[in-house]
Design goal:
about 140 residues, alpha+beta, Jelly Rolls, 4-stranded antiparallel β-sheet, globular
Length: about 140
């Protein structure tokens, strides 16, 4: 597969719920720090014993989210793996394993923080989305 250009990265990022409130310029800035990675079937993007230093956006393929060998979810294109990695480096107790040939965009924490130092509105938008997700989760368990 040929590598994605900046426009294709922006299009992929625009489909991600976590980033849905960003402007075209903000998408472009994030796309500029997103690095493409490929996983073969069975290859892990996240491991429970590996500290997190990036989040991943699935562009093509699918990823099984497993805990103790049990499948919890199958993540598909435009879903995010490890969104918590931007704010907390502690590993999560799950494995994320490619179910098929999978292409990801990797957004490293250090690059993201460098970007945020000049773009506070990006952080505000992402925090807003995360708070809404948390609120929805709390309401579902009440």
């Amino acid at each position: 597969m040929p590598e994605l250009n900046i426009i294709e990265k922006v299009i992929a990022l625009e489909a991600v719920e976590l980033l849905r409130n960003l402007t075209p310029d903000q998408f472009s800035r994030i796309a500029s720090i997103a690095r493409e990675e490929a996983l073969l079937p069975g290859q892990a993007a996240l491991e429970p014993d590996r500290p997190l230093d990036a989040l991943f956006v699935i562009v093509d393929g699918s990823v099984d989210i497993l805990r103790n060998g049990e499948r919890l979810h199958v993540a598909k294109p435009y879903e995010v793996l490890g969104s918590w990695a931007l704010f907390d480096e502690e590993p999560m107790p799950v494995r994320a394993v490619a179910a098929e040939d999978t292409r990801l965009l990797r957004i490293g924490r250090d690059d993201f923080f460098d970007l945020l130092s000049d773009n506070v509105e990006i952080a505000a938008s992402i925090f807003s989305t995360l708070v809404k997700r948390f609120r929805k989760l709390v309401e579902q368990t009440s």
